[in-house]
């Protein structure tokens, strides 16, 4: 069936039947004793039929098929429907030159029909394809040449391309996963007789003239199901399998099923009389007026025919594959509404997609695909990121293969839904086997490129919309989110993960990044927009990471940058730290973290450099003194800062160490490695603002009395406060709080070593206050009694 060459799709049925016999997977049922229950007996060959023996190396081949290729019994229906579809394709092709091949009436309707007979435990699949003659049945279903079997085994042994279906006829034999007896009834236009091919799974098959119900043309397969495969007689199971595997077959697929239909029928006279008697018995007869009203109502009701609702079980043919394979058409021929409808059916999503890409790839590997980006991400999308399967469905010649192919898309693009249909891939029966196919790498490369182009176009549309001038009175349109802003809110984290995971596409992904900056006024901007508005002479892209936008805007690290009118990127997502470790430059501009040492502005002239050098020399003694008063492992150095304006001092990370934000993130890891934490923290540097009055005062005190305990405490307190303001934490917070309380004591005039107050003093004071309150209340009451009453006055 799969064209002329594909008639051999039916060719290995005998092989499977023999293997099923040897493995005990197919038996003739008889009384088993014990409980005395009798089971059904498989049908026998027709009387007078000509019997033949299979000719093949059966056991070796079937062992491979059953134990390796067919990992799922459900695919038997997929294979038989695919064979029927190919047979229909052939008769349609023949009808192009000879219209009489189709016939007239019902025979001209090309379709596939499935019917389950629960009483006989038989599943029937019928197509109106080209059919087979007696010789076709014998040659293609019964005679399996030894050379052909050996060739298949040799190909498997060499690890070659196993394009099984249509080449060796393996697809048909999946039926023996669920059947112990198969009957193939066939009628071909070139043969006046109708024939039946039968196999009992005992090493033989039989062909005889079919005396059953005539079929005008095509093939009817009757599958006598095993006892453990009775679920395939349920219409719901069959319907689900067709929807899963064969939804986009070119020809209609019908299932004979039932449904409950409501119908209004007249109430019979005896039922009507019973109802009237019951109503009369329950009625109240309080007065004559009520009786007259009831009689009038009865007279009105008598004029209207009385009916009741009954539910009837109606059996009819139900079409299962209404959805069309729109990816086979040119994108110019498909309407926007068709894409939305197709997406909703595919993704089981009521909303329209955010965008889509419909394309055809040509070359060594040819395939057609439609990719969709959903409007909303699942609520738990990033909770199970690395274990979430791909949302792409792989089809081969419109036959569904699997939706669990991680080889088609990298993890960071798993939010993309769609269909990939290839004509060049082998239609293997096992997804495990197809995953090893070399063509998948080529398909993946092309799909990733198309997916990134789709996202890029979405971003460009958003940028164009921002550039368009909007009327002042159209405020709603101004505030409306662009499609790419919606995408970024839902899937922006995936782009950042892509920068981490996909080095080959890092530059493309960097152009898709969006963030807020010190000049963006709360709007999202791209790296390209940032570079376009860089100041003349600026050689660095500045950014800072932190816990929240408010914290970053008020960060002391940005004081000089903001003063110099330099734009700074704000990163508040924890994953941004990992992203920027992998993204070191963009358009030849290096990234610089504003919270790390050696921050350069690139605009200092020679005079400014000379002044700064003199300042460092003037503060050398002071910074050396301050470093000596801090713990040995606290900071690597104390330096004069060029980044501060109004803040006295800050603590910065080393150039290649973790920032304060990254350190906070790593400390929060439940499975964090303490040894790695100690190593990657790096060294810290305390930078001081030489122009700040607090620094000037501390410098003067350190110069006049360098051994003063009070001055040393002030230096430590300023360092610890700078640690907190810079986002760091310290291991001994108790020492910091003790110094803060000592400073508060001094401000309140309390001695540092003042003793605790005795509790009894509070009790005495409280008793005295209570006594005074009682005396006051007594005086107030006496004054009230002595005062003259209003009447007396």
From TrEMBL:
InterPro entries: HATPase_C_sf, Heat_shock_protein_90_CS, HSP90_C, Hsp90_fam, Hsp90_N, Ribosomal_Su5_D2-typ_SF
Positions annotated to bind ATP: 79, 83, 127, 132, 140, 146-148, 167-172, 431
Any Pfam family: HATPase_c_3
Highest taxon of the lineage: Eukaryota
Ranges of Basic and acidic residues composition bias in the record: 778-793
Signal peptide location: 1-28
GO molecular function: ATP binding; ATP hydrolysis activity; ATP-dependent protein folding chaperone; unfolded protein binding
Region (Disordered): 262-308, 761-793
Acidic residues bias locations: 262-303, 766-777
SUPFAM superfamilies with a match to the protein in the record: ATPase domain of HSP90 chaperone/DNA topoisomerase II/histidine kinase, HSP90 C-terminal domain, Ribosomal protein S5 domain 2-like
Keywords of the record: ATP-binding, Chaperone, Nucleotide-binding, Signal
PANTHER family assigned: HEAT SHOCK PROTEIN 90 FAMILY MEMBER
Family per similarity comment: Belongs to the heat shock protein 90 family.
HAMAP family (alphabetical): HSP90
Protein name: Histidine kinase/HSP90-like ATPase domain-containing protein
Organism name: Ostreococcus mediterraneus
Upper classification of the organism: Eukaryota, Viridiplantae, Chlorophyta, Mamiellophyceae, Mamiellales
């Amino acid at each position: 069936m799969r064209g002329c060459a594909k008639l051999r799709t039916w060719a290995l049925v005998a092989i499977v039947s023999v293997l099923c016999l040897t493995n005990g997977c197919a038996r003739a049922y008889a009384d088993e004793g014990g409980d005395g229950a009798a089971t059904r007996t498989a049908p026998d060959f027709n009387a007078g039929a000509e019997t033949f023996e299979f000719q093949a190396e059966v056991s070796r081949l079937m062992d491979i098929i059953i134990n390796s290729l067919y990992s799922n019994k459900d695919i038997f229906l997929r294979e038989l429907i695919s064979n029927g579809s190919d047979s229909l394709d052939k008769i349609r092709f023949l009808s192009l030159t000879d219209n009489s091949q189709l016939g007239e009436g019902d025979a001209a309707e090309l379709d596939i029909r499935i019917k389950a007979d629960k009483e006989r435990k038989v599943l029937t699949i019928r197509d109106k394809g080209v059919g087979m003659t007696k010789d076709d049945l014998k040659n293609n279903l019964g005679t399996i040449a030894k050379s052909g079997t050996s060739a298949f085994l040799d190909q498997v042994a060499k690890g070659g391309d196993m394009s099984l279906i249509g080449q060796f006829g393996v697809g048909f034999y999946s039926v023996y996963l669920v059947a112990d007896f198969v009957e193939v009834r066939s009628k071909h236009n070139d043969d006046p007789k109708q024939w039946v091919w039968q196999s009992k799974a005992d090493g033989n098959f039989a062909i005889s003239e079919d005396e059953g119900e005539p079929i005008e043309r095509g093939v009817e397969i009757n599958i006598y199901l095993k006892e453990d495969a009775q679920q395939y007689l349920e219409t719901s199971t069959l319907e689900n399998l067709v929807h899963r595997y064969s939804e986009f077959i070119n020809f209609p697929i019908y299932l004979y099923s039932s449904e409950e239909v409501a119908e209004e029928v007249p109430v019979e006279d005896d039922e009507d009389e019973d109802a009237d008697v019951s109503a009369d018995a329950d009625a109240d007869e309080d007065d004559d007026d009520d009786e007259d009203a009831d009689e009038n109502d009865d007279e009105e009701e008598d004029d209207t025919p009385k009916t009741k609702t009954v539910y009837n079980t109606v059996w009819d043919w139900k079409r299962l594959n209404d959805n069309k394979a729109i990816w086979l058409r040119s994108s110019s021929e498909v309407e926007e509404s068709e894409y939305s409808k197709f997406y909703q059916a595919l993704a089981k999503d009521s909303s329209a997609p955010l965008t889509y890409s419909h394309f055809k790839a040509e070359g060594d590997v040819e395939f057609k695909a439609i990719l969709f980006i959903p409007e909303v991400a699942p609520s738990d999308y990033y909770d199970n990121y690395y274990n979430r399967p791909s949302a792409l469905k792989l089809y081969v010649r419109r036959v569904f293969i699997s939706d669990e192919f991680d080889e088609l898309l990298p993890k960071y693009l798993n939010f993309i839904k769609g269909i990939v249909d290839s004509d060049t891939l082998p239609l293997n029966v096992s997804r495990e086997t197809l995953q090893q196919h070399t063509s998948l790498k080529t398909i993946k490369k092309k799909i990733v490129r198309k997916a990134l182009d789709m996202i890029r176009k979405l971003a460009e549309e958003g940028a164009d919309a921002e550039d368009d001038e909007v009327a002042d009175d159209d405020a709603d349109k101004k505030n409306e989110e662009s499609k790419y802003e919606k995408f970024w809110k839902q899937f922006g984290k995936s782009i950042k993960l892509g920068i981490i995971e996909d080095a080959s596409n890092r530059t493309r992904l960097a152009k898709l990044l969006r963030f807020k900056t010190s000049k963006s006024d709360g709007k999202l901007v791209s790296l390209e927009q940032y570079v376009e508005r860089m100041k003349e002479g600026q050689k660095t892209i500045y950014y800072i990471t932190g816990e929240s936008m408010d914290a970053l805007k008020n960060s002391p690290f940005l004081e000089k940058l903001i003063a110099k009118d330099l734009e700074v990127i704000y990163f508040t997502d924890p994953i941004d730290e990992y992203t920027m470790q992998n993204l070191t430059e963009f358009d030849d501009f290096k990234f610089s973290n504003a919270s790390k040492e050696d921050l350069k502005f690139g605009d200092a002239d020679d005079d400014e450099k000379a002044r700064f050098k003199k300042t460092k020399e003037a503060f050398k003694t002071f910074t050396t003194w301050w470093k000596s008063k801090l713990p040995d492992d606290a900071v690597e150095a104390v330096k004069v800062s060029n980044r501060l304006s109004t803040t006295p001092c800050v603590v910065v990370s080393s150039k290649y160490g973790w920032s304060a934000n990254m350190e906070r993130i790593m400390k929060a890891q439940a499975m964090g490695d303490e040894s790695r934490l100690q190593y990657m923290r790096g060294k810290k540097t305390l930078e001081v603002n030489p122009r700040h009055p607090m620094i000037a005062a501390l410098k003067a005190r350190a110069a006049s009395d360098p051994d003063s305990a009070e001055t040393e405490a002030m230096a430590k307190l300023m360092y610890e406060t700078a640690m907190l303001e810079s986002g760091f934490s310290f291991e001994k917070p108790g020492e910091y709080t003790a110094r803060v309380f000592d400073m508060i004591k001094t401000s309140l005039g309390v001695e540092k070593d003042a003793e605790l107050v005795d509790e009894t003093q509070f009790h005495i004071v409280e008793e005295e206050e209570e006594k005074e309150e009682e005396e006051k209340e007594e005086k107030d009451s006496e004054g009230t009694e002595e005062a003259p009453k209003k009447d007396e006055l």
